Amino acid sequence: MDIFDIIGPVMVGPSSSHTAGAVRIGYISQKLMGEQIKEANILLYGSFLDTGKGHGTNKAIVAGLLGMQPDDMRIPHSMEIAEKKGIKVTFGKSTLKEAHPNSAQIILTGISGKQLEVVGESLGGSRINIAQIDGITTNFSGDYPTLVVHNQDQPGHVSEVTSMLAHKSVNIATMQLYRSNRGGDAVMVLECDQEIPREGIEWLKKVEGITKVTYLSQKGD
């Protein structure tokens, strides 16, 4: 058992799930976005929706989107900071079905027009799970450099991705494969032990049959 399982994380706010976990969901979402955020539509579900306002969940998610960590003293002022940065933030109710009770559905638009939808779950003790990206199941913690590849369900794409990682001397910690149906849309989620060089990610984006590549780096901003 880790010491943080006993005493909880160092954080600003009253709840490790509703505050610290919410910050982490926002933080991982902005890292996945990979560029400055212009608009954020934050839809809350379950306990996040019912009791989140009192626990500061709204402010916590926005703080994470601004790149703050759970112990950042600026969290209570995140809405004002976002407004000063010109980031449009709206809140609403998520229509997710049978989701984790502490869930947020975050729809982001970047300054380039890029869009990203993330569903994050707060599991307690500041631990989170990224359950969906752009409507497709993912399930990863955000604790490792993570590569998410959307592709057509065709032979060869898995080997292309793993060969690129081997060529870049990147070891795979975990790998998950999902698909909507045979020959339809598919997604690979690879948590890695090392950072993936940008040239490898850019190469994947140009491979025929790969429709989107999203990368979560653990490097500091």
From TrEMBL:
Gene3D superfamilies: 3.30.70.260, D-3-phosphoglycerate dehydrogenase, domain 3
Keywords: 4Fe-4S, Gluconeogenesis, Iron, Iron-sulfur, Lyase, Metal-binding
Tree of life domain: Bacteria
Cofactor: [4Fe-4S] cluster
Pathway: Carbohydrate biosynthesis; gluconeogenesis
Domain spans labelled ACT: 146-218
Entry-linked InterPro entries: ACT-like_dom_sf, ACT_dom, ASB_dom_sf, Fe-S_L-Ser, Fe-S_L-Ser_bsu, Ser_deHydtase_bsu
Iron-sulfur is among the record's keywords: yes
Catalytic activity: L-serine = pyruvate + NH4(+)
Pfam family, one: ACT
GO molecular function, one term: L-serine ammonia-lyase activity
Family membership: Belongs to the iron-sulfur dependent L-serine dehydratase family.
Record-linked NCBIfam families: sda_beta
Alphabetical list of PANTHER family matching this protein: L-SERINE DEHYDRATASE, L-SERINE DEHYDRATASE, BETA CHAIN-RELATED
Protein name per Swiss-Prot or TrEMBL: L-serine deaminase
Organism: [Lactobacillus] rogosae
Native organism taxonomy: Bacteria, Bacillati, Bacillota, Clostridia, Lachnospirales
